[in-house]
Amino acid sequence: MGKSYSIVGLLLTGVVVLAVVLYLPTTSGSDSRAPYAYWWAADSGKTLAGTSDYPNSDGSFRLINDAGELDTTGHPFFSSLGPNGRACVTCHQPANGMSLSADTVRAVWEATRGEDPLFATVDGANCPHLPRGEEASHSLLLERGLIRIAVPWPPKGVTPDFTIEVVRDPTGCNTHPVYGLNGENPHISVYRRPRPVINLRHLTALPNGVAPHDKFLYNDKSLLPKDPETGKFVSLQLMSDGSGLTLRNQARDAARRHLELTRDLTEDELVAIVDLEERLYGAQGIDVFGNDLDAAGAPPGLGPRVLVTGPAGYLGNNAINRVFGDFSMWGSPDAHPEGLGEEERLWRESVARGARVFFERRFLIQDVAGLTDKGLGNPFHRSCASGCHNTTLMGMDLAPGFMDLGLNNLPWANNRPDLPLFRIVCDKDAAPHSYLGREIYSHDPGRALVTGKCAHVGFTMTQQMRALSARAPYFANGSAATLRELVDFYDRRFNIGYTDQEKQDLINFLSVL
Amino acid sequence: MKRYRTGFWASGLLLFLVTASGEEREDGYVSFVACPVARHQGPWRDVCFIARHEGREYALRNPPDYGEPQLKHRILVEGRIVEGEEYCGAQLLDGRFSVLREIDQNCNEIIPYTGPITDTPPPSSGRQGAYVSDDPQWAHLHPSVRPVMNQLPDLAVLPLPEGPPWQPQRQTIYYPFDSDRASGPDMARLVQLVEYAIASNARFEIRSYQGQSLLDSGEVMTERPGMARQRAEKLRDILIGLGIDESRLTIAWEPEPIVGTGREDWRSRRIEVHLEP
């Protein structure tokens, strides 16, 4: 049993090794194998297997439906419920870790000449007024995999403590007389990546063992919100701005927004959607050398199987619990099985080193509003895992981790002339943003669009780290096209000074999650 | 530019407390505003913070989760000198640091690592404490993904009796200057009191205060008007959210700040919680 990976692994290794440079085998996320072949169209009536593998350039993503095989005919997640022909699956694709990769978007564009309902102008175009079918109208979706999210402004029941104006409007949507900020029905349009609909049981679990943060937000020690239907506290991990609250709530909202459904989902539809979402698990299932990551002998935190059985909502930032577990079976030279090829040996050791860099290599985490100002101190000298990505098996922040990492706000954001830019000024009495003060330039005010608080401008929720190879580009606004760009962002943002080897080790590690 | 409301409070007491400028006070207390300075403690440890005042370096250990100092912000330091004890390579104070709200770009100094400081013990509790060191010396422990987090010490709170006879209970929650954020351990304790109150059908009374801080310079810092009320209302919402019936809750706040004395003025910024079964 202990060596079950090696047979498959060795067979495939020969093929792969030819194509890759020595222990730099990952191209991180770009899907080289005709992504349209795996496109799951709305109403396709296909059967979702209990376990299915979808190739990507780093191996394969594996999706588990814990309820077993599902005939998707008529299932509300897979059916076009509304008038625009889309289903939930349109943006939450099995082959893409139940998210949507930009490669897939481009393949669907090519194959359907932009006719697929994915490109519905409501949010599959930069703005609904743009002519459908012209590439320029859909550039954010085609290039970055971004969906338009129109947020009513001000949010219902909230009096914002800041003013917001549009400084730059490359999509034309925020200044548009109908869709814009000064329209009759004012909205702010921001552009975000679909988040993966897998492992949601882990995402919605309240944190264990960190009382009182099973009831309190870490940041300001106010209470977590409650599920309006059950009155129970919610984990606040759904959606990049925490607006999801519960899966039921989120599904209702998604159906109206993305499917343009003009009625509420029925109770049966809601139950079917949520029941499926709670039973979908996913992670990279096969690595670039063909190792089955669920098999014994592979690091036990890898593969989707452990997510099915593993307890949810534990802190993994310590020596006893490591976020993604132990990698020593790949890391120590004497642990390798006999006859393992040189390239694969180097690959495994690189992944194990990457896991250590992720877990142990500390750097000065500085000026991250929502993190270093919530009691931990600025700077906070921690590693990726002990700083923020600390939930066992998942890698998001256990206590709801809204923060301004620097992706949305100037001056740290990557150069993004394609995104709108807003100028935000805090009211005189409002608490300012902890490190940017009272005047902030932002591509996406994030959580502040929900709370109306100036101090929250640019905050987004840390997301799970599984299935990365299946769903480039990364970050909520798609700023990193590859895992390399993702690592480079951190290196630049925190002046970490990773060596090239450390970067490659990290990338290889991320590619097997 | 003054970023907080200030005033001057000249009095005999002040003259008595503060000797000629540039010299240390004689009563063993300090109260000042300064930039925090971070000290790098090497690859495996958190940074620690000190502050300089009147030619001396001071270090404070805030209680867990009360709020560590932040570069880009000045801090209000209110403490008592703990003779003969050092922390972070500086004179240890017993008291509180408060991070001031507005940004100060001048506060940006990190002392580089030059070698271990032996006086700094690891943090003891709170979520920071739960971050058991990721020092490689622990790396051999439990190489497993099996979560055993609940075997680690939880935020330590004393157990309360589970049944009658019910006793009155008290808790005092202290807040940083101009802030309504209570610490995790304080809220963990509050959750316990809520359970106790529900079990014993007790009445909750909360009384909230705001304060002034008299600095060694003679300057007086006054919290923003309405802080006591803001703290009280936030705590009320928390108690109701945790299941306390509004009819069993009395809240009151003192709108006038408690006058600063220059000695542990942080104690003014508080809520007193009283439970009467």
Task: Explain the overall architecture.
Chain A has 513 residues and is α+β, with helices and mostly antiparallel strands. Chain A has one domain. Chain A is built from 16 helices and 14 strands. In chain A, a hairpin with a 2-residue loop joins strand 2 (51-56) and strand 3. In chain A, helix 7 (247-257) crosses helix 8 (267-277), helix 11 (342-360) packs across helix 16 and helix 15 (483-493) crosses helix 16 (500-511). Chain A starts with a helix and ends with a helix. The model of chain A is unreliable at 1-32 (pLDDT under 50). Chain B has two domains: 22-111, OB fold (Dihydrolipoamide Acetyltransferase, E2P), CATH 2.40.50; 132-276, 2-Layer Sandwich (60s Ribosomal Protein L30, Chain: A), CATH 3.30.1330.60. In chain B, the strands form three sheets. Chain B has a seven-stranded mixed sheet, with no helix packed on it. In chain B, strand 6 (75-87) and strand 7 form a beta hairpin. Chain B is globular and about 55 Å long. Chain B has helices spanning 12-17, 126-130, 184-200, 227-241, and strands at residues 6-8, 29-34, 36-39, 48-53, 56-60, 75-87, 90-99, 109-111, 169-174, 203-208, 212-214, 219-222, 249-253, 270-276. The longest helix of chain B is centred in the last third of the chain and has 17 residues, at 184-200. Chain B has 277 residues and is of the alpha+beta class. Residues 1-22 and 122-156 of chain B have low confidence and may be disordered. The interface between A and B is large, with 61 and 61 residues.
Question: What is the strand and helix layout of this fold?
Answer:
The complex is a heterodimer of chains A (513) and B (277).
Chain A: H1 4-19, E1 47-48, E2 51-56, E3 59-65, E4 70-71, H2 88-91, H3 102-112, H4 121-124, H5 139-144, E5 147-152, E6 162-168, E7 187-192, H6 200-204, H7 247-257, H8 267-277, E8 280-286, H9 305-309, H10 328-331, H11 342-360, E9 363-365, H12 372-376, E10 380-382, H13 384-387, E11 402-403, E12 421-426, E13 439-442, H14 448-451, E14 460-461, H15 483-493, H16 500-511
Antiparallel strand pairs in A: 1-4, 2-3, 3-8, 5-7, 6-12, 9-10, 11-14, 12-13
Helix pairs in contact in A: 7-8, 11-16, 15-16
Chain B: E1 6-8, H1 12-17, E2 29-34, E3 36-39, E4 48-53, E5 56-60, E6 75-87, E7 90-99, E8 109-111, H2 126-130, E9 169-174, H3 184-200, E10 203-208, E11 212-214, E12 219-222, H4 227-241, E13 249-253, E14 270-276
Parallel strand pairs in B: 3-8, 5-7, 10-13
Antiparallel strand pairs in B: 1-12, 2-6, 3-4, 4-5, 6-7, 9-14, 10-14, 11-12
